[in-house]
Structure formats: C-alpha cells, structure tokens
Design brief:
The complex is a heterodimer of chains A (about 325) and B (about 425). Chain A has 11 helices and 8 strands. Chain A is α/β, with parallel strands linked by helices. Chain A has a single domain, classed as Rossmann fold (3-Layer(aba) Sandwich). Chain A has an 8-stranded mixed β-sheet with strand order 2-1-3-4-6-5-7-8, with helices on both faces. The two termini of chain A are about 40 Å apart. Chain B is α/β, with parallel strands linked by helices and about 425 residues long. Chain B has 2 domains: about 240 residues, Thiamin diphosphate (ThDP)-binding fold, Pyr/PP domains (Rossmann fold, 3-Layer(aba) Sandwich); about 130 residues, Rossmann fold. The radius of gyration of chain B is 22 Å and the shape is globular. Classes of the chains: A alpha/beta (about 325), B alpha/beta (about 425). Chains A and B meet through strand 1, strand 2, helix 3 and helix 5 of A and strand 3, helix 3, helix 5 and strand 9 of B.
Chain lengths: ~325, ~425
C-alpha cells in the first residue's frame, strides 16, 4: 500500500479545509442553515469581491444575531447589483436611502429598535469606499462619535466603480482611474495621504475596528461575529478586489486580496477602543510588483515606459505598513 | 390648558403630546428652542419611550428620521433655512420612500447674504419635494397643525412640513391653549406603518426603479396630495369636535363675501393684513383676505372659488422666484386662469424686513385702483439699488453687493425696519 499524504491546506492557499474542523469551528458559509442573506441571481460582475464579501459578512452577522438583522445600504455597486425591483436579492429587511447617509439611516433604525424594546434586533450599515470614506464620511463620523449601536461595513474596492471607476480617497497612489489617467510625468493617482478610515475610526475610540479581506474569509467571518457580540459603534473595512475597475482577471480576485495583505499594502488588523489588539501576520512576504502586475490599473508602471521609482514608492508604503503594524511573523520572511 | 408661552415651547409641548418615538436635533435658528425643549423633556424622562439624537448635520437629522420612520417609529425633526437646504437630498428621499415624518420649518431667509430673519424662501424652495406644507398664522395654529400633521402624514404615509414664521411666531410669547394628553390620544392613533423594516417579514425598501414604474410611483405621490385636499378639511372638522376650536383646513377667508379686492397671504403676516383690512373696511373699502394654510397640496379650486366674485387680487408673499416674480402668486394665478381676474404680486418682508401697516395701506389702495405694476417690491430702497447698479456699470471690481448697500444706506450695524 502506497503512502497517501493528507492535505491539510486547500491547493494554493493556506486555508485549512473545512472538513477537517469540528462542527463549531466550521465557517458560517459551510453551514447548510446559513441565511443566504444576499441570494443568488444578483447582477454583480464575475469575480466581484464585494458580492463575496457582503455574502460572508451579512450571513455571519445573521448567524450571530439569530436572524434578527436589519441592513441600511449606501448607494453604489452593492445596492445596484443586488436590488432592482422586483428582483431583490436581500432575504433580510433592507433599506437604501442615499449615497451619503447609510450610517445615519442605520442610527435611526437602531433608535427605533430601542424605543420598541427590540434589543434583539441588530443593525448593520454598508457601503463602498466612496460612500464611506468620501460622501458618507460626515454621517459615519457622527455615528461613531455618538457610539450608536451600528456595525458599519465598508467594502473597499479603492474607487467609484459603479459610476465608471473614478478616484476615491481610498484609491492607492499611482492607480489609474477615469479621473486619474496614466498620462503626464506622474501618471495615475497622486501620492497624497488618501484617507485611512480604519485609523480615523480608531481615533473615535469606538469599541471595535477591524480590517479584513476576501482572501481570509474565516477571519472575515470571525471579525463580523465578534463585532456582532459587541454593542455600540463598530467598523469593519473589507478589502474587495474589483476585476472590472482594476483591470484584473475575474479568477484573480482572491489572489489579489491575498497579495494585498501579503505585500503589506492592506494591513489586516483589529482594534478595540482605539488600540490595535491583533494583526494578521504576513505568511510569505512578497514584493509589491507581484501585487501590481496582474492589475491593468498599474500597467503604466511597467513595460516600455516603466516607472521603477514609482513602484519603489509603493513598496515604501507597504514597508511602512509592515513596520507600523508589525505585520511580519516572528522569524517570518 | 391656557398658557402664556413661547411659540417654540408650545410646539415642543404639542410634539410631546403626539408621543414621538425618535427626535433628531440639530441646532439652527430660529427652530432651536423647539428641539431644546424636547431634549429636556426626553432627558427628564417625561417622554418615554423616545430617543433624542443629537446629530451632526441636518442631512443626518433627516436621514436618521428616514431610518427610524422606516423601522416603524413616529419620527420628528425641526429645521430652518440653510438647514433645510442642507438636508434637501434626504427631504426628497423621505417623500419618495413615502415615510410620514413630521418636520417643523421655522421659516427663515436663505443666504447669501446670510440672514437669520423670517421669510418663506426656505420651505417654498421645497414645494416640489413631495412634502405637504401647512402654514401657521398663529402659535395656536402651529400647535394644532402639528397634531393634525401627524394624523394626516401617517394616514397617507407621506411627510409634512409645518411651517411657522421664524422669530415672529417661534419666539413670540402669547396665549396658547395646550391640549390634554387625552384629547391628543383620542385624535391621533398609534403609528401603524404601511411598510416597515421587520426581521419577521423582510422587505427591501428603496431599491432602484427604472422607467417602467418610476412615473407611477411619482404620480402616486401626487395622488396622495390630492387625497390630502379631501382629508385636510375633514381632519380639521374632527379636530374641532375634540379640541373645540377651528384650526387647520386648506384656506381661511376674512370678509371676502362682498370684497372687490382680495389680499392673499400665508403665515403670521395675515394678522397685520386683517388689521389693515378692518381699518379700510371702516372707511368703506370693499376688501377681504384669503389666507392659504395648505400650500402643498395647493387648493386650486377653493382659491378659485374664493376669488371668483372679486374683481382683483393681490398676493403678498415673503418669497421671490428670482427672474420671475412670486412663487405663491404663480400658484394663485394658476387657480384663477381663464377668469380674467386682475392679479398683482407684492414681494415683501424678505430677510425679516418689517411689513408695517402703513406700507400695506398704501399697497392695497394702489391695488384697488389697479395702479400697481404686475410685481411690486414693497418698501424696496430704489436709491440703494440704483446706486449699486450704477456702481457696477462704472467699476469692474465693484465689491461685495451687500456691503456696498449697507455703506450707501449709512448703516453701521444691522437694523430692522
């Protein structure tokens, strides 16, 4: 009888196969009783990171709240692809009001639940990075500052994808968007500060802030469930690659999300009351080029008219994140 | 119970009697005293269960009210002027979603130049938003209209602005009869929403609607306001049965039976107008008054019927459709189209400019003789205006208009009148 090695990890990933875990350790999505809060049949693009992130996040929130969940949604891709009447994908009570007011609408829902004595009903608000870091930022900060009992989830795909891929304050430097074209001496988005909303959320001293990616879905579920066990204002920013906006292959969504984390471009951490409590360590540190090259939005940095100095500046950003958050594992490479 | 009280306090007490469940507060003069008083009541535990939320902007105030109303809670806020404009996107959204939010608008001018005093530019800018708009003439009426507004809004599942003149009403101390809780409870049943966010029966609210259904949705908003034309007088009748006084309704007339000239206006200026009309009647002038309480829906037929026996009308309004003339006047002219009635528009009281009886006497007499221009700007300082126009002709960099005019008038600090 020949030796048959046991595969603990799924091919090409570092994720332990679900079958090998005890029932209570398995993912929400692995459970046949999952709520399918955002049901099949919606109109997201193939490989949409946001659809995937929303499905995992909202199902996890539903699991933790025993199905007693109401969602407020900002205008954006998620709202548009999931809802046109009468084909709403949402299997939970769901409201869309405006682009910039989802946090405030959620505050209103939470207040209504409080006066109705329905402390069992929990509220999530969700939006893309444009609806969160730009136009909805005032309402978001207000909701944080009052510590309203709302979990806000930002699906960060680094731009206004619904309107045709324009720059947001979450767009990385050098990235091509429709409003930061790859022309002139410094092609693509400017090297500014951008807006680091997880850190700004932490500055509000709210109970919980976390980042996650669609490459680590167990981590994402864990963070949503943890957030749902808390009260007050909570914020989770989920990194969700956008094949259309980034010019990436649909099958690379998970890979790009993982590379964003493994390069240090997107630090994955959690914080309570303004202090970082844990970071997801980089398992195999990779150079920034590996993350940039599969994306057409960075194509102008390579090839005939390459911009190695710009690539080096992006690498410096990743390295700074690694230092700042301590992203390298002990003895890691 | 009769009380000598401030208009804002009286309105706050009326709102409290309506058992609101969520109140959103953002300060802006001159509505601030209303939410301050409500905040104190909630904090003292006199108003339970009720959540009082200090939001970060008027846009958030309306957005929180949208969320709470959609979740089935009776929701209230108050604003004015720039605040109303800052929340405009959410104002239209609340109406589009069919959420029965009640909001006090303490009517105030819109800048620039920044000005905190009363006129009707703010709420009239929202005339096509889908909100109903009821204008109070007195603080008693402001109290009563709020109680009727919750009833009407929730019946039709559409939002209502109760408009009261900033400062002139909100800050005026006068006698007001505050109803009892029993009376209000008998008139206003608990809120039974037509649509509600409920985990037991999940629905999607506010999803995208294309050309195939959008017009019908918008038409239904119009249809509801047409229903309101029927319901407003009925609700005023029911109100009288329980509270014992005439309040509300679509319009109110004063000596129009034999009037050859009818003055039309909204809000507190009706008091001054009625005094002038009394004095002119004593001199034998056949003049009457038509007060419009419901600006949205606009009672076209009632206005037409009220004017049809007259010879001419003059609309005195605290608003200006720049490049056109009057806003209220345009609506009134629509009501009388085809009648051949002579109509005049008088723009008065912008930014709190006082409307004295003497000016009205002069204006109404000119209207009687049909000596007015189609649009008259009451008590406008033509010298100041012409001087500025001349300055602009002479100098390219003529400077800030408002400052120039104050210089020309020799005014060092703001002065009324």
């Amino acid at each position: 009888m020949s030796f048959q090695p046991v595969k603990f990890y799924q091919t090409g990933t570092l994720t332990v196969g679900n079958r090998l875990l005890a029932q209570d350790e398995r993912s929400v999505q692995a459970n046949q009783m999952r709520s399918n809060s955002i049901n099949s049949g919606h109109r997201a693009c193939q490989g949409c990171g946001e659809a995937l992130g929303a499905r995992y996040a909202i199902d996890a929130a539903m699991a933790e709240s025993n199905g007693q969940l109401i969602a407020a949604n900002a205008t954006g891709c998620l709202e548009v692809f999931s809802t046109p009447y009468p084909e709403s994908s949402w299997q939970i009570p769901w409201i869309h009001s405006l682009f910039g007011n989802a946090p405030a609408v959620a505050t209103g829902i939470a207040a209504a639940m409080k006066v109705k004595g329905r402390n069992d009903v929990r509220v999530v608000a969700q939006g893309g990075d444009g609806g969160t870091t730009d136009i909805g930022f005032g309402c978001l900060s207000g909701m944080f500052e009052r510590n309203d009992d709302v979990l806000y989830i930002c699906y960060d795909n680094e731009g206004y994808m619904n309107t045709g891929v324009q720059r947001s304050s979450a767009t990385p430097p050098a990235a091509r968007t429709a409003t930061t074209m790859p022309v002139g001496p410094e092609p693509g988005n400017v090297f500014g500060q951008g807006k680091n909303v997880p850190e700004i959320a932490m500055a509000h001293n709210i109970p919980y802030v976390a980042t996650a990616t669609v490459a680590d879905l167990r981590d994402l579920e864990y963070k949503v469930r943890k957030a749902m066990r808390m009260r007050g204002a909570r914020y989770i920013q989920i990194f969700v690659p956008c094949p259309l906006g980034w010019g990436a292959a649909s099958h690379d969504t998970i890979r790009l999300a993982r590379l964003a984390k493994e390069t240090g471009m997107f630090p994955v951490f959690e914080a309570e009351h303004g202090e970082v409590t844990s970071v997801l360590k980089i398992r195999n540190k990779v150079a920034i080029e590996e993350y940039l090259k599969p994306q057409k939005r960075f194509a102008h940095l390579f090839g005939k008219h390459a911009h190695p100095e710009t690539v080096a500046r992006l690498q410096a950003i990743a390295d700074r994140n690694i230092r700042k958050y301590g992203l390298l594992a002990e003895g890691g490479n | 119970m009769l009380k000598q009280t401030e208009g804002s306090k009286a309105v706050a007490e009326a709102i409290a009697l309506c058992r609101p469940e969520v109140i959103c507060a953002y300060p802006i003069s001159p509505q601030t005293h209303i939410v301050e008083a409500l905040g104190e009541m909630v904090k003292a535990g006199e108003l339970t269960p009720c959540e009082f939320i200090n939001v970060e902007s008027e846009f958030a105030a309306m957005s929180v009210a949208i969320g709470s109303s959609a979740a089935g809670a009776r929701s209230y806020t108050a604003t004015a002027s720039q605040g109303l404009l800052f929340m405009v996107e959410a104002v239209y959204n609340a109406a589009g979603l069919g959420l029965p939010i009640v909001m006090t608008v303490a009517n105030r001018a819109i800048g620039a130049p920044i000005n905190i005093w009363n006129d009707h530019s703010d709420s009239l800018s929202q005339r096509d938003s889908g909100w109903m708009q009821l204008f109070a003439e007195t603080n008693q009426e402001a109290v009563d209209l709020h109680i009727q507004a919750f009833r009407l809004a929730e019946e039709l599942s559409m939002p209502i602005m109760v408009c009261m003149d900033g400062f002139i009403l909100t800050h005026a101390f006068e006698r007001v009869d505050i109803p009892s809780q029993e009376q209000v409870d008998a008139y206003l049943p608990p809120f039974e929403p037509r649509q509600v966010l409920d985990p037991a029966e999940p629905i999607s609210i506010g999803a995208m609607v294309g050309p195939e259904a959008f017009m019908e949705v918008k038409y239904l908003a119009h249809a509801k306001q047409m229903q309101a034309l029927e319901r407003i007088p009925q609700l005023a009748d029911e109100f009288k049965q329980i509270f014992g006084r005439d309040s509300g309704g679509l319009i109110r007339t004063y000596h129009i039976e034999d009037a050859e000239t009818v003055v039309i206006a909204m809000g507190s200026v009706l008091g001054t107008i009625k005094d002038v009309v009394d004095e002119m009647r004593a001199e034998g002038h056949k003049i009457g008054v038509l007060g419009i309480i419901s600006f949205r829906p606009f009672p076209l037929e009632l206005v037409r019927a009220a004017l049809i026996k007259s010879r001419r009308f003059i609309v005195l309004e605290k608003s200006l459709a720049v490049g056109m003339g009057g806003i209220v006047a345009t609506n009134v002219r629509m009501a009388v189209s085809g009648t051949g009635l002579k109509g005049f528009t008088a723009i008065a009281g912008l930014g709190g400019r006082a409307i004295p009886k003497s000016s009205l006497h002069k204006l109404f007499r000119q209207a009687e003789k049909e000596e007015l221009e189609p649009v008259t700007f009451v008590d406008l300082d033509w010298d100041a205006v012409n001087k500025q126009l001349e300055r602009e002709k002479q100098t390219r960099r003529s400077g800030p208009i408002a400052e120039n005019i104050l210089h020309d008038k020799g005014i060092v600090s703001a002065k009324f009148g």
